[in-house]
Structures are given as structure tokens and as C-alpha cells.
Amino acid sequence: MDIYLWITIGFIIVGFVILTSMKKSMESKLAFIKANHVDEGSSKQAKSIIWWIVGTTAWGILSMLLILSWFHYHFG
User: Fold this and answer.
1) Where exactly are the structural domains of the chain?
2) What angle do CA 35, 41, 47 make, to 5 degrees?
3) Handedness of CA 40, 42, 48, 53 (dihedral sign)
4) Of 71, 62, 75, which Cα lies nearest the Cα of 11?
5) Eight-class DSSP state of 76
6) Using CA atoms, how far apart are residues 32 and 59, in angstroms rounded to an integer?
């Protein structure tokens, strides 16, 4: 197997580990927001959850693009 495949697999695995380790803290931040509707801390918590969702989406899209480009490079 070539280095490009290992980079792709490593990116996916490391990203998955990071996202799952952050999941519990995001759940607690969401519970804090639900409990405190108008608190100043809720705004900061909401922004961090939004950025986590944006990061997760970007990681997923980039992972798919890396896999597709590897297939294109390897079989194309």
C-alpha cells in the first residue's frame, strides 16, 4: 500500500478519535444550554457546539474527498 492511503486512513482514524473524545463534553454543554436559556455562558457554549459541528462536517467532507481522490489516483 502506498503512503497516500496511509495518510488517508490515519486522518480518518485520528479525526474519529478526537471527535468521539469531544462528544461527551459537547453533550454536557448542550445540557447546560437547555438548563440556562438566557445565561451569558449559554452563548459561549452554543458557539463552541456550532464550531464542533462545523469541524465535524469539514472532517467528514475532507475524509470523503481523500478517499475519492485515492480511488481516482489508484484506479484512474
Assistant:
1) 3-75
2) 100
3) negative
4) 62
5) -
6) 26
> Which residue type does 10 have?
G
User: H/E/C letters for each residue in the chain?
Assistant: CCHHHHHHHHHHHHHHHHHHHHHHHHHHHHHHHHHCCCCHHHHHHHHHHHHHHHHHHHHHHHHHHHHHHHHHHHHC
Dig out the grid coordinates for 2 from the structure.
502506498
pTM of the predicted model as reported, rounded to 2 decimal places: 0.83
11-41 residue pLDDT tens: 999 999 999 999 999 999 888 888 887 777 7
